[in-house]
Amino acid sequence: MFNTAVNPDFDGIWKDALTRWLPGCMALFWPEVHAQVDWRIAPVLLDKELQSLRKINKRGVRYVDHLAQVQLCGGGAALLLIHIEVQAGSVSHDLAQRMLVYRFSPDFSSAK
Predict the structure, then answer these.
(1) How far, in Å, CA of 47 to CA of 66, rounded?
(2) Cα–Cα distance, 30 to 81 (Å, whole number)
(3) 13: part of which helix (H) or strand (E)?
(4) Measured between alpha carbons, how far is 16 from 29 in angstroms, rounded to an integer?
(5) Which of 16, 14, 36, 20 is nearest to 80 (CA)?
(6) Other residues' Cβ atoms within 10 Å of the Cβ of residue 11
(7) Nearest Cα to Cα of residue 56 among 79, 32, 34, 81
(8) CA 48 to chain centre
(9) From start to end of the chain, where are the E strands?
(10) Mean pLDDT computed over every residue of the chain
(11) Rounded distance, CA 102 to CA 27, Å?
């Protein structure tokens, strides 16, 4: 019997997938961005640096899933700031608003 009192960690599964299979996830979800990255050079995950800059989590603290530095096919580097929000079960009517907060809230101007 399924215990409905426990909330499964759907977000954690996707965050793990991003860590393990970043190039494949990028190809699946963001093919235009994937095509611009030189995947022969391993991305540098900067998640700890990201969390130290700005702690954001659900219910008071929001987590941005990944920050990765990648090399571009045309030369140069780029930062990928990735957030995946998984909505399972009952419909959350504030999903669009939460996505706007994630889209526009990163502010690293005070980072040292």
Answers:
(1) 5
(2) 12
(3) helix 10-20
(4) 15
(5) 36
(6) 17
(7) 81
(8) 13
(9) 44-45, 66-71, 77-82
(10) 76
(11) 22
Name residue 14's amino acid: W
Residues in the chain, total:
112
Q: Residue 54 is encoded by which pair of tokens?
A: 């700005």
Tokens 């995947």, residue? 39
Looking at the predicted structure, is the pLDDT value of residue 13 above 90? no
pTM of the model: 0.64
Secondary-structure percent of the chain, ordered helix, strand, coil, rounded to 5: 40, 15, 45
DSSP state of 94: T
Q: DSSP character for 93?
A: T
Query: pLDDT by residue (tens digit) across 45-93?
Result: 887 777 666 554 444 445 557 889 999 999 999 999 887 777 666 777 7
Count of C-beta atoms within a 10 Å radius of residue 79: 11
pLDDT for the residue 111: 43
Place of tokens 């702690």: 55
Tell me the HSE value of 88 on the side-chain side, using a 13 A CA sphere. Answer: 10
